[in-house]
Every structure is written in structure tokens, then in C-alpha cells.
Write a structure and sequence with these properties.
Length: 754
Amino acid sequence: MRVIGRPVVRLDALDKVTGAAKYVGDMKFPGVLHAAILRSNCSHGRIKHIDTKDALELPGVHAVVTGEKYQKPTGLYLKDRTLFAVDKVRYYGEPVAGVVAETPELAKEAVRLIRVEYEQLPPVYDPLSALADGAPLLHENLGNYEWAPVFFPKPGTNISNHFKLRKGDVKQGFAESHIIHEETYCVPHIYHSPLETHVAVGYADNGGRLTVWSSCQSPFAVRKFLSTALDIPLSKIRVITGYVGGGFGGKAGATIEGLVAPLALAVPGRHVKLVYTREEDFVGAYVRQGLVARLKTGVGKDGRIRAQQCELYWDAGAYTEYGANIVRAAGYTSAGPYDIPNLWTDSYCVYTNHPSGGPMRGFGMPELHWALELQMDTLADKLGMDPVEFRLLNCLKDGGVTATGEVVYGVGLTECIKTVAERIGWGDKKEGVGKGIAIMCKAPAMPTNASSSACLKFNEDGSVTLMTSAAEIGQGAMTALAQIAAEELSLPIEAISVSCPDTAITPYEWQTVASRITFSAGNAVVLAAQDAKRQIFQNASYILGDHEMELVDGQVRVKGRPDLSVPLESVVMGAFLPDGSAKGGPVFGRGTFTPEGLINLDPETGQSPRPVAFWTFGAQGAEVSADPETGKITVHRLVAAFDVGRVINPVTLEGQVEGGLVQGLGSALFEEMVFGEDGQVLNNSFVDYKIPTSMDVPAIETYFVEVAQQDGPWGARGVGELPMVPTAPAIACALKRATGTLHRKLPLVRHGRD
């Protein structure tokens, strides 16, 4: 029974198209109270006084919470933030106080009654200014914070992490170069734009146990965050995640949960609901960091890259506890998909008075590849070399060496490039139309001990409940994992149901991030199925005898003897013998997976023989024109090819890629958070913040290369984030060939005439 590789209808499809799917905002709770957040109206200021008296006296208000009670810095990676502002605020919109009231309207009215007196402090709004001598310090106590040992903050500065990579001899590489090109590239902050804003419900019982329902990607990470922030044991915290209406990284880690939890603790016995408005969502969670990238690249007369020096300055915002990891990931990927023998990279995570930077689809790779791919296209032009041939010459292949010194095998990038070039019609010319290509790579940015686990609970009829804490954020994880289970157990997909994450019930999952769920959770499902089969065969042996067995189409049979078999449902609860006795018991398969052999990067050189679980490669082509009178940019076609290892579900995979390309199109053409002189976001609604509509979407073609990942489930590797990575540079390179000008700032609609 083959399920892998088939276009299976998503398990959640009917619920979502009929409106039956329950998101956290849809959940009903008895006697629920409502919360609202007072946010700062200055970007950098010392808090002199908070007056909550009038708010507390308003009838219907149950509690007001400030940072006075919760002063401990916390975070998952770098503990640099508090739940509510303490002592000072560091960006416009930072939470200062929270109110719990009978209705949403009352909560908002009470917020307006809270008075806060600030002493204005000088702000800093870009990373280069934040690094200048005499720049105002955002975190004077940086040296007292706690952080993971893979990060390197610089106390006394605005640098929350400095990642260094040193490979080969850069000076010698530049000395051997025929052409050296230096350039600066800029990427703005952008917003994740999920259909569902952040929402959470908290409930604290009288015994000190806390339950949080949240539209989050990572319930176990939320539980860990709340435990350390609130000094509550993990055993007394429960986090439940239902359907999530889009995450894209903005619902990774913990954000809104750190506000609703202390508010719920203030009113034990009552549920407290907090729903962000769209305007709040722009600043209340993570935004994608800005980047200023300075690249210097040298190539020989033969077209081969000899050396590259990178300076990456990340505008990571006021709190960078998650953003520090993005800066690290970009640093160790700073060669991109190219085999460059000599590298020198400094990647800086810099505090500014902007909203907190954090993960967004691609985890720093779209920003990095914007600079890399424009740089490579320019070098090809300077050499008089075809951009496709330049990339084919220099891209990673089997036996190639990454920026970190890792030797890679099973690389399907060359085939991806050739596929895109062929399908985009690279050699064909059209008047006024340009074609561009960009390539990319990405690895899952996760700690070496990031684990997944899965359980398979069999029902009396032989059907199975797959228990996993992988969050369904729209990427199709629920269906892909069910397909893997069905394939391993030789069952129809209809026999598999999947539970929603619940830290009190479902097994541990590190986080639903990093394009790792199909790989990591998928491997855990394979191991759980193998464990279940051992139990099934043991139960069946009491009836069929001690033989080698197999599962085929819902039957347990002796290998080579199809006449010796029993139905699966007859043994999943144990074996019941003719004399009335019973042996064995209910089948419950369990599997855990942690990638083996990963080694941390050297802190001084960034080198490691295997720092990541796997690499995924891909290429994209774009066909673009621009109106010479109006400057209007039209993207006519996008073509993508990715090496996914093994296609689990072609329909959901195609949907993932198409969605990623459209998201990448938005970042290329329109998307940019615009800040006022006071640091306030000026375009915090979809009236002013533009994302692509159906009218903007071009013709899209997707192709998949399948070079199996040796340790992946059925050979698969993750691809969810990748489609967004090379879209913007592919469009910019095409625009250059249409107009003769390469634009180095995003978005192109705003900066296309720079």
C-alpha cells in the first residue's frame, strides 16, 4: 500500500474549508475575562512612575499587572527581556501594563486610564549608528544576562551576538583574484502577515497550575519560557495548541503567552483571553530583522570564486533573545550555496529601538541571499560570463565544502539550476523583458540536541491515533506525518488520525520551526511505527507461531505464506487464544529522534565537520518587465526547483512552494515596515502595509529534484521555508536585465528608482 508520494487530501482540509476548524480565538470558556495591553508611546525612555489607581477603580476591572512583580530577565536563547517593561522602555509599543476586565471594551477603557511618566532617552534606529562611538546603550546590564554558550554578546556595546567565521586564507584568496567586487545591500524590517493575529487564553487554578491555549508554533518552548519567567515548575504548566492561522516564524518561541500568563495568575479560577488587533500584531510579536550587508568577493580569470569577506549588520530591535540565533545561522551560511575556499565573516546582532526582531520564514536566509545573489550576478557580468554558467561552475556539488568546512554529499543543486534555466527559457530573448536566476541553500538552525518524539496509539478496529506535538501552521505537517505512519504500517491514510499538541498529553517536540518537522518528527514517526510493529508481530506470534512477519494491507502475515495471516485488528489489543486465554497487550508505539553526529561550531573560526542535520538546495528563475514611464514592475513568471530528497505529498509540497514564492514576491516588491521619527510603525495595517493579492501573482511553475537524504524519513528533507529565500534576488536580477539597473535595496517598488 503506497501512500508516500501520492497526492493525499490534507487531513484538515474539510474542517478548514467548512469553517469547522477550531482556532484559539474560536474557543469558548465559561466566565471568560478579557485582557488589554498598555503599550509605550515612546521608543526609548526611563519609566519614572506608573499610576494604575483610576484603572483599578473602574467597575468591571479585575486586575492590573505591571513589570513590578516580574523583573527577572528571561528568554529562550538570550535572557534580555522582561514580560512587561521594567525601569525603561526600548521600543514604541512595548508592553508596560496589562488589564483584566469583564469585557474587551472595559479592558481597553481601563488601559486608557493608566498614566505613565517617562524620561525621554536618545534613541537609535539603525545598526550602524548603534555601533558608533557614543551611541546610547539599550541594555546597560547586558553583561549580567544569561545566554546559551553558542552566542557571544559584547557587554558595554549594543552587540547582543557577534558570530565569527574564518575559513582558509582570505588575503591570499584576494591576492589570487582577477576581479574584486565590493558592495552594500539593504533589507528592511517586514511583518509576517498571518491571517490570524496572535491570540492566547490563560487559566490559573487555585492550586497554582497554569494552562495556556495559544496560537503558537512551539508549545514546549512556550512552557519552558513560562516556567523560567514565572518560577513555576514545568509539571504545573500546560500549553495547548489547536489549529494555527499562519505562523511563518512569528508564532515561534513565546510572545503573547508571556503577557496572558501573569494576567491569568492575577485572577485565579477565571479564564483570561488576549487577542491582538492587527495594529498590535505589528509590534506585539516578532518582526523580521533589517540587514545591512557589506560583501567583498574575489574571482579568478577562470570564473571561480577565490575569496569572500562579509560584514552583516542586523537591526535586531530592542530585544534579540531569538534574533541572536538568526544572526548565527546567517553567519555559518555566509558562503550560501557556493564552494568558496577562503572566507571571513562577521555577523553582528545589534540592539536598536525598533520592535523585537525574530524568526521569519527562511530564518535569515532571504536577507543573506538577497546580498549574495546580487553580488554573484554582478561578478558574472564583470567577467562577461553567463550568470547560469557562473553558478553552475561555483555551486556546491558532491564533495564540496561549505563555509563551516563540512563536506557535503547528495547535493541536487546542479540539477535544480539546469531545470530552472530550461523551464524559464534562459536563452530566449523578449523585448523589454528580463530573466533572472538565483540559487540558495538552508539548514535547520537548531541546537544539536533538538529532539522529536511520536506515539502511535492503536484502537480496537486497527485504526491509529498519531500523537505528536508538531504544530499544524498551514504547512501540511499533520498530513505528511500521517502519510509516513500509514506507509510504515501498510494502512490507508483514512486509518490515521492526528492529535493536536498538548504538553500534558502529546510527546515532546522541540519546536515547529527550521523546516525540520518532516525530517525530525517524520523520523520519530518511523521509529514509533517500527516499535509498534515489533509489538504487533509479538502478539501475532502467539497465534501464527514464531515466524518472520510483515504487515500488508491491514493483515499481519507470515512472510512468504500469505495463507498464514490474521487481521491487524485481531492483535492490536493483544492475542486472544482459542482456549480463552490472552497474551500480550494493547499496542502503543513510541519513537524518539535526535540527529546524531552534530558538533558545535568553533567559537573563533565557525568551523565544524557537521554543525547541522542537513542542507536543502534550490533555484528560482523570474521573468520581469518594467514600464519605462511609470516604473511599474510586472513579474510575469516564476519558476522554482528544489531538491527535497523525497516528495511525501506532491499536492501539499506544490502548495508550500507556491505560497513561499508569493510571500517572496511580496518582500521583493512591496513589503517594508515604515517607521516615524519617534520609532512608531506608520503602516501598521493592511491599508498601508501592502502584500500581494491575486492580481499580483504571476504564472508559477514548480519542479522537484529527489536526491535522497540518507537519514531522512523515506529520504525526505525539509523545504517549507526555502521557497521564499531566492525569490527577491531572482526578481531583482531579472529587473536588471530588463532595465539595465541593479537595485540593492528592498522593496523594489519603493527603491526601484534609487
